[in-house]
Amino acid sequence: MVNDDLLDQLQCGHLAELQARYESVLASHGYDAVLISSGAAPLRFADDQGYHFQGYGPFVHWTGLVGAEHAWLLIRPERKPLLQLHTPVDFWHATAELPQAAWVTAVELAGSADGVPPLTAGCGRLAVLGDPALLQAVAGDHNPPALVADIEATRVHKTDYEIACLAEANARAAPGHRAARQVFLAGGSEFAIGLAYQQATGQREVEAPYHSIIGLNDHAGILHYQFYDQVSPELPRSLLIDAGYRFRGYCSDITRTWAGPQQGPFQALIVALEALQKRLCQAVAPGVDFVALHRKTHLGLAALLDSAGLVQGLDDEAMVAAGITRAFFPHGLGHLLGVQVHDVGGKPVPPPVDAPFLRMTRTLEAGMVVTIEPGLYFIPSLLAPLLTGPLSAHMNRRLLDALMPCGGIRIEDNVLVTADGPRNLTREQLP
């Protein structure tokens, strides 16, 4: 586990760095201050219950306070940030307490019973960021697009504090993944696997960075499978678990795939895809075009499909050009990671037409943290055109039919880009 004293020291440095970054952005856009709303969960339609709340990214970037509703953060040049938390008198719910951590010495800390914004008179030209529904009565320029884009860009390069938090988020997710595998091999249901993951990590799912994807058998081929069957399948062929942990606001995003007993061909594919995934992780370095790395993934997947006998009679380039690899691997190679799972700032330009779902179009630079997550799936709706169209002669239908009930494979690590080579935050904890 990470040393708390070291984290406190790093967090103070993080806040100083953010102050400098924000001052530069404000000056470049002609603003004197920016007021950031943490947000608040809206009520469900025709109900008195709210949705689970997770704070607005820029607010969490500064504070790490994911659950602080109706809070405000005022950033002004050459002054401490003003952090105002909502502290109502309420006997129905627990209310926020003013934090006592070391980092609060770097801010002006205040409580507010009504949650209204702090006074901004005298701040000059003011930008206000947050959910438009909560800003209607707030003076200032609301969410100016150019300013928002540059503030989002302040999150692309991680500080030492952020890297430490992301590493810890990986460390705390690892026991959950090990527990999930054990329950799967013991014949557990998706629901039981999900409970085992939460028990091992000690974090409720609503506190985690995203709803865990836990797919057994053909459910592993549904990319964002959202349900948990409570009944175990008669024959446990495969488990795909995509689950993370949130630490001080920072997210891990890890995927592993496991084969059940007597699933030799599927296990062989897992081994082959993991070998490709590890090569891609090793290729992460400053100056690498992420779009080019995504395309390299498709060439690697084509070679895998050929060696496994799933596709026959086509060379790798022809397989990619014909769109065959996209049917087996329809999503992007990865994305930026931070206080949001799909962190902002990764797409300064739109993805190319041959990779419409790619969430990262930047050239890699030191300080970025990205996910590397190639996949190989047997999705009926995507494979049907290949099996019935002009390319059908190249498809090994017998082998595909045998593997279809296994759903698919995804292997995902969180990788820091450094000048000295990649640092795989996930493999440090989960080989």
Notable characteristics:
431 residues, alpha+beta, Creatine Amidinohydrolase, Chain A, domain 1, Creatine Amidinohydrolase, 2 domains, 6-stranded mixed β-sheet, 3-stranded antiparallel β-sheet, 11 helices, 16 strands
Walkthrough of the structure:
The structure is a single chain. The protein has 431 residues and is of the alpha+beta class. The chain has two domains: 4-153, Creatinase/prolidase N-terminal domain (Creatine Amidinohydrolase, Chain A, domain 1), CATH 3.40.350.10; 160-424, Creatine Amidinohydrolase (Alpha-Beta Complex). It is built from eleven helices and 16 strands. The chain has helices at residues 4-29, 57-63, 145-153, 160-185, 190-201, 264-282, 290-307, 316-321, 324-328, 380-388, 397-403; strands spanning 33-37, 72-75, 82-86, 108-112, 126-129, 141-142, 213-216, 238-243, 246-247, 250-251, 254-259, 369-372, 375-377, 408-410, 413-416, 423-424. The strands form five sheets. Strands 4-3-2-1-5-6 form a six-stranded mixed β-sheet. Strands 7-8-11 form a three-stranded antiparallel β-sheet. The protein has a three-stranded antiparallel β-sheet with strand order 12-15-16. Strand 2 (72-75) and strand 3 form a beta hairpin. Helix 1 runs antiparallel to helix 3 and helix 6 packs antiparallel against helix 7.
